[in-house]
C-alpha cells in the first residue's frame, strides 16, 4: 500500500511546545498522517495551531483524550507530566507516541507501558536521535559483522544547555532531573541502539557546577553490555567548547551553526541576569503562538547529537557532516548517507505499528531502560543486572 493511499492515521498533539514545533512539520507533510486536534493550556498556541492546520483544540490533554476522531496522540508535554498524560490517553483507548525521555522515573515509564498493554493500544517512543539515519547505519554495520567484534561506543556533546532560556521547572533538579534526562536520554539511546545488546552494568555521574542555575548540566556514564562491548557518554552544557566544531559546524537540527553560538548564548544569559532581558520572554520567542506553527520541514543537513565514535576489531566508525568515516588500518572509507530526518524514520516505525501491527524495535517498552539509566546517572550511582534475581536491576552490596 502506498504512502498516499493508506488510510491516514488521525493525530492529536498533546502539548504545543518546542517538541511539537520540531516534529509537527514532519507529521503534517506526511500523507500517511492527518493532524486533527491539539491540546495546550496557552490560548495563543491553540490559535496558532488552528491557523496552520485547522482542527479542534483543547486546554488540556485529558479533554483531548475524549476526542473520538483521534487515533494517536503525540505527547510532548514536560516529561514529569508524561505518566499522567500518557496513562489518561491509553485508558481512553488512544495510541500514544511519547517524546523522550519517556518519563521522569523508571517506575513511571513502566506504568505507561503496563497501562497501554492492559488497554490493547500502542505505547510508542520518540523523537530520539537513535532514529537518525547516520546512527542507524552505524548500527547496521556493527550488526553485520563486517568490522568484526564490537569494542566501544563513545558519544559526547559539548553545548550551551544551561545558559539557554529555560523554564523554571527545567532548572529545578528535582522536577527535571537535569542533563541526564533533558539530553542524556538521546545519548543513552544512541549507545544502546548501536550495541544491540542487553545491559550488564551501568556507572554514572552528574553535577551542577553553577549555583545560580542549580540544574545538573554535565554528566558522564559507562555502560557495559552483555555482548562484552562498552559505551561511554559525556555531556557538558556550560557553553565553552562546542562539539559542533567536529561536524563541520552543524547544529543538532542539521542547520549551519554559527561559530559564535556559545558566545551569543552567554551574552543573552548575561542580559537576563542584569535585567535587560526577561527569561520567560526569551524562551517564549521560539514557542508556538509567538512564532507561527510551521508545517513544512526545512532540513538542510544531517541531524546530530554531538559526536559518536564506534570502535570494532576491524575498524573505527565516526559520523561526519555527510555520513560516516571508517578507518580500517591502511585505508579509510567514506560513506555518504542521503539527508533524512530521524523523525521520518520514527514515523515509518509508527505507521508500521498502527497499520501493519509490526512491533517497533524502539518503542516505549524499550525506552524504560533508558529512563532507568538516566536515573542512575542523575543519582551518581552504580547498578548491575543480576540474572538470578526477579527484578531487572539490583544494586551490588
Q: Which regions are unreliable across 5 or more consecutive residues at pLDDT < 50?
A: 1-5
The level 1 CATH classification of the largest domain is Alpha Beta
What kind of sheet is the major sheet? 9 strands, mixed
Q: What's the name of the CATH homologous superfamily of the largest domain?
A: Dihydrodipicolinate Reductase, domain 2
What is the average per-residue confidence, as pLDDT, rounded to a whole number? 94
What is the subunit arrangement here? Answer: single chain
Kindly report the CATH topology of the largest domain.
Dihydrodipicolinate Reductase, domain 2
In CATH, the architecture of the largest domain is: 2-Layer Sandwich
Rg measurement, Å: 21 Å
Q: What structural class do helix, strand and pairing data support?
A: alpha/beta
Order of helices and strands: EHEHEHEHEHEHEHHHHEEEHHEEEEHHE
Main sheet strand line-up: 14-13-12-11-7-10-9-8-15
How many DSSP-defined strands? 15
Terminal residue distance: 55 Å
- Residues in helix, %: 25-40%
Shape: globular
Tally of structural domains: 2
Brief summary:
The protein has 14 helices and 15 strands. The chain is an alpha/beta fold.
Amino acid at each position: 500500500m502506498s504512502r498516499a493511499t493508506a488510510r491516514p492515521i488521525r493525530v492529536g498533539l498533546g502539548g504545543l511546545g518546542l517538541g511539537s514545533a520540531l516534529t509537527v512539520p514532519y507529521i503534517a507533510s506526511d500523507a500517511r498522517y492527518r493532524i486533527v486536534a491539539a491540546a495546550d493550556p496557552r490560548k495563543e498556541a491553540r490559535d496558532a495551531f488552528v491557523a496552520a492546520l485547522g482542527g479542534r483544540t483543547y486546554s488540556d490533554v485529558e479533554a483531548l483524550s475524549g476526542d473520538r476522531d483521534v487515533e494517536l496522540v503525540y505527547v510532548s508535554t514536560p516529561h514529569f507530566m508524561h505518566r499522567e498524560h500518557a496513562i489518561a490517553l491509553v485508558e481512553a483507548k488512544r495510541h500514544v507516541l511519547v517524546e523522550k525521555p519517556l518519563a521522569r522515573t523508571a517506575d513511571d515509564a513502566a506504568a505507561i507501558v503496563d497501562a497501554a498493554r492492559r488497554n490493547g493500544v500502542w505505547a510508542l517512543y520518540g523523537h530520539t536521535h537513535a532514529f537518525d539515519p547516520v546512527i542507524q547505519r552505524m548500527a547496521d554495520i556493527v550488526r553485520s559483522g563486517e568490522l568484526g567484534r564490537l569494542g566501544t561506543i563513545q558519544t559526547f556533546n559539548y553545548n550551551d544547555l544551561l545558559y539557554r532560556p529555560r523554564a523554571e521547572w527545567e532548572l529545578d533538579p528535582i522536577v527535571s532531573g537535569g542533563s541526564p534526562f533533558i539530553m542524556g536520554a538521546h545519548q543513552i539511546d544512541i549507545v544502546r541502539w548501536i550495541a544491540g545488546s542487553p545491559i550488564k552494568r551501568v556507572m554514572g555521574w552528574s553535577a551542577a557546577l553553577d549555583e545560580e542555575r542549580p540544574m545538573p548540566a554535565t554528566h558522564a556514564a559507562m555502560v557495559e553490555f552483555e555482548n562484552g562491548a562498552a559505551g561511554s557518554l559525556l555531556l557538558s552544557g556550560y557553553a565553552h567548547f562546542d562539539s559542533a566544531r567536529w561536524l563541520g559546524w552543524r547544529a543538532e537540527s542539521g542547520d549551519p551553526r554559527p561559530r559564535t553560538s556559545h558566545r551569543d548564548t552567554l551574552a543573552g544569559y548575561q542580559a537576563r541576569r542584569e535585567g535587560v532581558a526577561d527569561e520567560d520572554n526569551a524562551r517564549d520567542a521560539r514557542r508556538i503562538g509567538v512564532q507561527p506553527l510551521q508545517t513544512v520541514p526545512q532540513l538542510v543537513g544531517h541531524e546530530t547529537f554531538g559526536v559518536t565514535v564506534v570502535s570494532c576489531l576491524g575498524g573505527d566508525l565516526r559520523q561526519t557532516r555527510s555520513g560516516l568515516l571508517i578507518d580500517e588500518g591502511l585505508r579509510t572509507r567514506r560513506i555518504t548517507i542521503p539527508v533524512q530526518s530521524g523523525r521520518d524514520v520514527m514515523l515509518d516505525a509508527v505507521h508500521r505499528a498502527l497499520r501493519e501491527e509490526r512491533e517497533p524495535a524502539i518503542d516505549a517498552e524499550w525506552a524504560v531502560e533508558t529512563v532507568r539509566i538516566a536515573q542512575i546517572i542523575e543519582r551518581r550511582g552504580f547498578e548491575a543486572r543480576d540474572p538470578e534475581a526477579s527484578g531487572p536491576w539490583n544494586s551490588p552490596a
